[in-house]
Each structure stands twice: as C-alpha cells, then as structure tokens.
From TrEMBL, chain A:
Coiled-coil blocks: none
Extradiol ring-cleavage dioxygenase class III enzyme subunit B domain: residues covered: 8-271
Organism the protein comes from: Phycicoccus avicenniae
Protein name: Extradiol ring-cleavage dioxygenase class III enzyme subunit B domain-containing protein
Domain of life the protein comes from: Bacteria
InterPro entries per the UniProt record, alphabetical: Xdiol_dOase_suB
Listed GO MF terms: ferrous iron binding; oxidoreductase activity, acting on single donors with incorporation of molecular oxygen, incorporation of two atoms of oxygen
Top-level taxonomy: Bacteria, Bacillati, Actinomycetota, Actinomycetes, Micrococcales
UniProtKB/TrEMBL annotation, chain B:
Record-given protein name: Extradiol ring-cleavage dioxygenase LigAB LigA subunit domain-containing protein
Domain of life where this protein originates: Bacteria
Amino acid sequence: MAKVVAVIASTHHPFYYRASRSVGDERPPFADEWVAKIERFRETLTRARPDVLVMVGSDHFHQLWLDNMPQFLVGKAPVYDANWYNEEREFGLPRFRLEGHEELSSHILRGGLDSGFDLAFSNELRIDHSVTCPIITLRPEADLPIVPIYTNIFAPPLPQPKRFVELGRQIRALVEFWPSDQRVAIIGTGHLSLELGGPRQFGPHGPDPEFDRKAVEWIASGDVEGCLAEVTLDSLHAPGNATHGFMDFMLMMGAAGDGVRADHVDSLDLFHTMEAYFTWYPEGAPA
Amino acid sequence: MSKYLVDKFLFTIDRDPDLVERYREDPDGTVAWWEETQANRILGCIDDERSTWLAFTDEERTALRDHDHVALFEMGAHPFLTLTLFIAMFERDHDEPLAYQKAYGEALAHLSLPYPDITT
C-alpha cells in the first residue's frame, strides 16, 4: 500500500513569491526572516522524499463559478495548467504546468463516493494560487505529479467545519489504502484570521491575533475536538470575513489525526495576516 | 436584489484585462453594455441559449456605475471579487504601497459585525 510520508498544512500567501525575490529598496524588511522560515519548512517536505502530492486548496472564483458550484471537487487530469491573469496582475505569480496523477485521482474519487462523500470531479482544471503557493514554497521545482482537491470555503452556503475534518480523515485513509508503492505527501493550505474587502483588511497584524494564537495551538496539538467545539460557520465571521479558509486547516487536522502533535510548527506575524506552517510525519520523522 | 448578477459582473470584468480598463475608464458605458449583452449569457453556453431574466436593480446599477465599493459591500456583493477588481483599477493611482488597500478598508470603517450576507 502507499505510504503517507508527510501531512503538511500551511497558509498560502500570494505575496511570498514577489517578496522573496525582491531586492534593494523593493525588498520588504520581513522578507529575509520569511524566506528562512519557508526554507526550513520546505526541508520538512524534501526529507520525506515524496513521489506524489495530494494538494488541498480552494479556487478563488477562477474556474469554479456560482452557476455551477461544487462543495468538494477532485481534479482528474493528466496535466494542470496553473495561475490566472488576475494573479499575475496582482501578485506577480508565474504560470505553471503541473503533471497530474490520474490513477490516484480515480482512487480517491471512487473511494470517496463509496464512503459517503459525493465528490465532484474535473477533467480539465486550471488551478490557482491556493495550490501553486505551496508549490512555490515547498517544491519550487514543481517536478512531482499532483492530485488537486478543491473545497468551497468561499461561496456560501458552505459545508460544515465537521465535514472538512471528516473529508481530511477520509483522504488520509484512502491514500493509505491505495495499492501502490508510492510515497504520498498530503498538503493543504488555508488561512488563519483574514479579512478581504472589509474594514479590518491590511492591518498591521491579522484581524484577530487571539484567534490566530488559538488556531495555531489547535493545529499544532491536533486538538480536533477542541477546535470543533468552538468553530462554527457563524463563529468564523468574527475573526475576519475570509476566515472560513481556516476550514482547510481543519481538513488537514483530520488528515493528520486526532491528538497527533505536529513535528514541525512555525509561524510568522505579518501585516494583514499571520503565516503558519505545520508538518506531521505519520511514518515517523525521516532520518 | 440580485447579488448573483452583481457578482457575475465583477467576476467577468475582473478576469479580462480589456474589460478591467474599459470599466475603469467608462463605467457608465461598460455597465450599460454589460447588462444589455452579457448579463444573461450563461458562461459555457452558446449565445442562443442564454437566460431571459437577469437584470440589475437601480441601486445595483448605480453602485457599479459609481465605482462605489462601499455600496457594493453593503448590498452583499462578494468582497473578494470587489476588492480584487478595484485594486486592479485603482491601486495604480496611489504611490505608497498598500495606500489604496488601507483607504479602501477605512471607507468601510462604519460597518460592524455582522457584515451584510454574501450568500447568493
């Protein structure tokens, strides 16, 4: 059976690419520290020697639209082109072309459908920065095949937080039952407290540092129960109007396992939003 | 009230570089053209198989013509769509980094939780 060699949860900050490459007067004062943290984070994936990446993210109204909106969608295609004009425009992100892994996509789709998740699928998916940001930070070579999984954290009505946790658990179980000798990393990105297009946006910190502190602790300690006891679709409005992206972190907590402490935990308090990085090694830390 | 149609306007303009410029320079003309020819297009369908029922309310049309992001927020337009498009149109008019984004937030400072519902 396949091995889950790493479970990784991260924020996806579209400004990292530009900040990390900027020089001279253009380089923000926090860039060096940010790059150092990302390089340590990247090493946690490199050490796990993955062959395939399952990548959980959320389309930001790029390909998925309100006339036909899936809640959970699995990409099943041989190739994924990536990034969009408005992401090049606003964030300076480069375009990518990533190889897919149709066999693992099929396995997750079939297994999900047979276990209570009526997953949507796409045979032609152009992916966005929720997936390419972690490629840039964790695997800039972009040389591994991927299975993209999109969740709806963006266009209400949304699925319940509990459903994200359950899907994370199921993805983990399905990968572990995949008859293959491949080494799989499951990587998902979301947000801590975040406000976009509202009065609390672009402040000196994230809109709710207290939520961020609690969220990092829930994730780092694998406290699924504590997190689910406090987080509801309604409660997530309070820390910031885009904080429903935290549910992708909850999905990754499900993938990592209840009560399982992360092997790597790091964060960076930036303007606008806090960055946070977590890695678990289900097979034990690699040498 | 058609939050969906307002969002559809923001979505279809934001993804097209020519339309971003056109909406910046000629908001009245762009909104009129869009409502007349685009509002009922089903994305992914041929023109002949369009919808027959979508139109802006006066309030929505005015907010879009006035580039009024505060009114759009107050009527429950999706804040990500509005923000992204407005940064594309107006950040260039500000020298200081993030000055436009901060002013955009300050213009909404009178709003408190719960924010207007964005459910479509």
